[in-house]
User: Fold these one by one.
Assistant:
Number 1:
Amino acid sequence: MALKITEECINCDVCEPACPNEAISQGIDYYVIDPMKCTECVGHFDTPQCVEVCPVECIPSDPDHPETHEQLMKKFLRLTTEHA
C-alpha cells in the first residue's frame, strides 16, 4: 500500500530527495505523498527510503490505499515506462 506522512512531520526535507518516484512534495503544513506515484520503493530498493531517512518516524502505510507487492511492482513498471 502507499505510504503517507502524518502531521508529526517536522519538515526536515530529507524524505523528498530520497524518493525515487518523486512522489513526495511539500504540502500546506507538511510533506505529502502522492499515492499514485508511491510504490514503497518496490522496484528500486528493499525498503521505503523515506521511512529509512525520517528522523521522527511519521511515515506509516496509508490504509486508504491498500496495495499488494504485485500491484506496487506493476505501478513501478508503469511509472518507469512513462519516464523512459
Number 2:
Amino acid sequence: MSNDKLVFISHSGEDTWVARQIAREVGERGARPFLDADNVDIGAEFEEEIRNSLNKADELVVLFTPWALDRPYIWMEIGGAWLIRKIPIIVVLHGITKQEFISHPATPVFLKNRNIIRLNDIDQYFEQLKMRVSEANRYD
C-alpha cells in the first residue's frame, strides 16, 4: 500500500535545514514531502514547479521563523492553499512567539484562528499525519 498524500513544506531559504528535517519526518510517516530545495531542479521554472506542486498538495506545513515572516513566496503559498486549494494549513513557529506571529501586519485573520504549534511540539502533527495516512491506505 502506498499513499499519495503530498505535504507541501513552505519555508524561507534561511530555514532549509530545519525544513529538511520536517520533510524527512513527513516521509517517515508515509506521506510524500515537497520541499523546493530538494524537489525543484536547478534551471527549472521555479514558480511553475511551486504552483504545480501546491496544486497537488493535500496539506501545507508553513515554518514561520523571524526570517520567514517577510518572505513573499510564503504568503503566496498560504494564499493559494487557503483560497484556491482549501487544504489544511499547519502553522509551525520557530524563534517567534504566537503573539509575535498573530500581531505581525502581514498575518491574515484566517491564520490567527488556527491551532498554531511550536516546532518543539511538531511531533503531535507528525502523529496526526501518520493516522491520516493510515486511514487513507485503508481505503486504497
Number 3:
Amino acid sequence: MKKRIIALALSASMLLGGIGASAQSTFTDLNEFHTWAEPQIEAMTTLGIIKGYTDGSFKPDRAITKTEALVLTARVAGYITKDYDTFKSVASEVYGDITEEYNTPYPNEVAFLLYKGVLTKEDLAGYIAPDRADSPLLRYEMAILLTKLIRAEESLNKSGSYNLTYSDAGDIPFIAAPYVEYVTNSSLMQGVFDPEFPNDIYFKPYGSVTRAQIAVLLHRVMDKFETNVSFGKVVGKNKKNNTITFSNPSGSPTIFAIPEDVNLYVDGYKTDNVNAVTTGADVAFFYINNTLCDIEIVNGEESRWNGVEKNDNAFVPTDPVEGKISTITLSDECSVTVNDVDYTISAASAIYVNHVASTVYDLRVGYDVKLEFVNGKVVLIYATAPLDSSSQTVIAEGVITKLSLTSRQVYVEVVNSETNLPVERSIIIETGASIYNGISGEKVDFLALEIDDHIIATGTIKDGNFYASKIVIR
C-alpha cells in the first residue's frame, strides 16, 4: 500500500502556533505583502503541517524557532502518518534517553528525526539546547535541514570548492557551503533581494526564517521530492541471500533482496544483519521520488533488538525443537519458522511428512513439526499433516514428457517416493493448485510449465488418477 506523506497529512490533527487552533484557509493578517506565500501557507495548514493562532492570525513574519522547525520537519518526514505509529513508538524508546538530556517539549518528534536519520545525536545541541531552542532558525541551518530531510547528504559536493554566486557567499559558514550549494541547485532555496543593492543577490545565511518562509520551503520539498511508504509484515528471512519475505496488505508474500545501497533499520538501529529481524515484524519501505531509500523494520515488543549483532548460530539449538510451522520461505536457501525462530533447511536435511519421505515443498504452515540438529544444522524434520481418510498423500518427482493445456494434465516419467520405481503417469493439475518456481520461490501459473521441466508433484490418488494440489518446478 503506497502512501504519499503529503496526502496522509490530511487526516492528522497537529499543533504549532496557538494550542488548540484549527487549520483555516484564510488568515486575518495575510495581506498583499504575503501573496508570494499565501497558496503554500493555505496548503500546509490544510495538511496539518503548520497551524495558525486562535485569534485567526498566522503571524507570517514571525521568526520560526529552532524547536518549532524540528517539529514541522518531523511532520513532513512522516510523523503524522498513522501507519507509522509503531515506528514512532520504537523511535521514542530507542532515543528517549538522548532527548531527555535536553528537556524539550517535543521529545517524540525529535526522537523520530533521529530515527529517520534527519538528525544525529551531535546535531541536537545546535537545535534544542536551552540557549538555542527558542532562538530563530537561521537560513544556513534551514539549508542543512532541508538537505538532510530528503536524504541528499551523500550526494553533496565535498570537494571544498563551491559554485556559490551570492554576493555574500563569503559569509556562508564553510560547513554549510555544500548544503547551500545543493539547495540552490535543487531550486529549494533562492537568494534574497536587497532594494539597497538592486544588482546583487544575497543568501543572507544568518537571516531568520519566518513562518511564511518555512511554509513555502517545506511545501517546495514535498512538491519536488515525492515521498511514498509501503507497509507490510515480515514472514521470513534468509541470512545467506540477505533477503526478507514480507506480505503486503493484500496478503501476497514477496521475497525481497535488500540492496547494498539501501539502509536497513531494525528497531531503530542501522544494520546489515537480517538475523535481527523476527517473524511478524512490521516493515516499511521508504521511497523518495520512487527510489527506495530505507527499509525500516520493527519487531514485536517481546522480540525488540538492542542493536547488538546477533550470532548466526543463536537461532539453531542443539536440542530438538517442537512446534507448529508459522512461515515457510522458498528460495535458494529454504527455511521454516517454528516458535518465531527461523531455521535453514539444506539439501541434506531429511524431511518426513506423515512418515513419508518428502521435500520442503511438501511442508505447510500449521503442520506440527519436530526438528533435530547435528552440529547446529537441521538434519531431520518430522512433520505431521492431517490426511483425508478417503485418500493418501502421494509425492512424485520426474520430467515432463508432454502436457495438455486444455485438460490441465502433464505426463511425466516419475519416481514414486514410496517404491523408488519409475512409472509413466498422467498428473491432473487441480484448479487452484499451487505451482512454484523452485529456484526463485515465486508462485507461477499453469502456463509456466514446459516440456523437460523437472517437477515435484504432491497430491492424492482418487479413482486411479493422480490429482496434484502442488507442483514445484526444480
Number 4:
Amino acid sequence: MLPTLPTFSRTRFPRLMAGAVLALLISSSAHAQTLADVQVLMKEGKLPQALTRIDRYIAAQPKDARGPFTKGLILSEMGRPRDAIEVFSGLTENFPERPEPYNNLAVLYARQKQYGKARAALEMAIRVHPGYAVAHENLGDVYARLASQAYAKALQLGSASEATQGKLEIARELVRLSTGEGEGEGEGRAARRKSGAESGKSASPPLGTDLGPEFVTR
C-alpha cells in the first residue's frame, strides 16, 4: 500500500503520482531480479551466497512468501533440515491457503522417517488444494511406508496371519517403486519425468527426493 500523499496543487500532483508509480515499478523490477539472481546462485551451488541474498530480500519484502519459500529450499540443499522445517512450518502458519509449503514440509519429514508428520502435512496440502496432484502421490508413498512399518511390526510381534508376509512384500515393493531403489542411479526418476513429458503432464517428484522448486503466487 502506498503511503498517504499530502495535499498538493493540481499542477504538482500528477507529477508526484507519476514519480511514485515509477519508483514502485523500479522497486518491483529490482525485487524480481533479486529472486532471479538467487536462483542462479542456487543452480551454481553457491548456497551461502544465495542464503545471504535471500535473507536481504526477506528483510526488504517480509510479506512476500517467495522469500522464505526459497530460503527453505536453500537450507535443505545445505543439509540443514531442521532449519528448513522451521521455515516451511512458518509458511504454513502465515500462508495456510497455499499447498506447496505443506508438501515440502512433508518431504522433509519423510526424509527423517517421520511419516506420521509427513502424512498430516500432506493431508493439509490436499485439504487446502484438493487438486494438488503432487501431494496426492506423495501421500500414497507415505501410506506405503506406514503400511510397511505396520506389517513388519506385526510379524515381529508374532501375532500376524500367514498373509501378513505377502502384504509386507507388496508394501515394500510400492516403497521401492516410489524411490527408484534397485534401479540405476537416477534412472527411476528420469523414467518418471520422461513418462510425464511424453504424456504432456508434469511428473510428480518422488517423496523424500525432491522439494517443489517453485512457489506460484496468485
